[in-house]
Amino acid sequence: MDLFGHLRAYDYGEVHFKYDKASGLKAIVAVHDSRLGPALGGCRFLPYDTDEEALVDALRLARGMTYKAALAGLAHGGGKSVLIRPQQHFDRVALFRAFGRFVDDLGGHYITAEDSGTGLEDMEVVRTMTKHVTGVDVAHGGSGDPSPFTALGVRRGIEACVKIQLGKSSLENVHVAVQGVGHVGYHLCRELHAAGAKLSVADVDPLKAERAQRELGASIVPLDKIFETECDVIAPCALGSALNDATIPRLRAKIVAGAANNQLAEPRHGDDLHARGILYAPDYAINAGGLVNVAQEVLGYDAKKSRDKTLEIFDTIYEIADRSRKTGTPTYRIADMMVEEKLAAVSRSKVRAASPAH
Ligand code: NAD
């Protein structure tokens, strides 16, 4: 494996490895960037075919966290941990205890949280070994379900897009088509309904779509028709890669703004949307509400502060859209540029602070 080649490709950073023979723990902690503060990011516990695959997953995801945290204005860098799930029988509690010790050894440089394959109970075990963990039980100062905060941020992002693209300062009668009404999509529909928006929804689980219809008056659209709904906004809230060669030509909406991660199948699809005059709210900018809420846990959880900070997603999306319009640059690139500007500014101020006085 070309270890440093991988690190170069993802612009690293540092990576920590731990093998604990007794528990079978094989852990990778990737700290992509800590210029803005300690790296924050979830812990995955999944089977991987190779160590290289696990490493690349950690590197890629931690880099994404740097961008999301920076754009949300959090004093955190991006990190991620990947624990390779043993193939043989293992003691889950012993394994997460060993992971907790590893996180503690890093002295707060990396703060962990739940992610794919881990849950509240695992984080409670980690908490017995280190204080550098979020996503613990509400009874222990945890921040609870992130989905309502993610949905709140997405609603604010949609408001910013509607203002800039449609010239409207309210969502009254704005038609939003939501793909996926699971945790975030459902809360988003509630937010939008309360703001007077008209809803169309599609979900592979008919019960979820029916709940949105029954409670919020949403129209149900067949799964393969949601992207061609005649509407103002498409909100992808299901899986990644929703915006691709097949879906983009069918879009009738002027705005794409939803919660799903990695919405662009490839970066060039961000260029396609831009070329078609469709305003795309970059996923990691609009869906940061859940991360904002988790980050609040590090400071001592306060739901009102989380909410206030999440509301600021309006300003971020507005700025991205405004800069895109003024410069003719696709929004996904503007978002990346804004992060890189922030990180460069911290580097400059650190260099200044470290320089001897003239
Ligand atoms: P979820 O699993 O609760 O909801 C996803 C929903 O999409 C489910 O109801 C599922 O049935 C539906 N679905 C799956 N495939 C579909 C398809 N092809 N067409 C229509 N519906 C489909 O997940 P979630 O927590 O609501 O997250 C949704 C997305 O938002 C994910 O991409 C997730 O990574 C992202 N996200 C979530 C959060 C959060 O706070 N939960 C934060 C940031 C980003």
Largest sheet: 6 strands, mixed
CATH topology of the largest domain: Rossmann fold
Q: Catalogue the ligands.
A: nicotinamide-adenine-dinucleotide
| CATH class wording of the largest domain | Alpha Beta
**CATH superfamily grouping of the largest domain:** NAD(P)-binding Rossmann-like Domain
Per DSSP E runs of 2 or more residues, the count of β-strands stands at 12
Stretches with pLDDT under 50, minimum 5 residues: none
Q: Kindly report the average pLDDT value.
A: 96
| Whole-number tally of structural domains | 2
Q: For the terminal residues, how far apart are their CA atoms? A: 47 Å
Number of helices: 13
Fraction of residues in helix? 40-55%
Q: What percentage of the residues does DSSP assign to strands (E)?
A: 5-15%
Helix and strand content put the structural class at alpha/beta
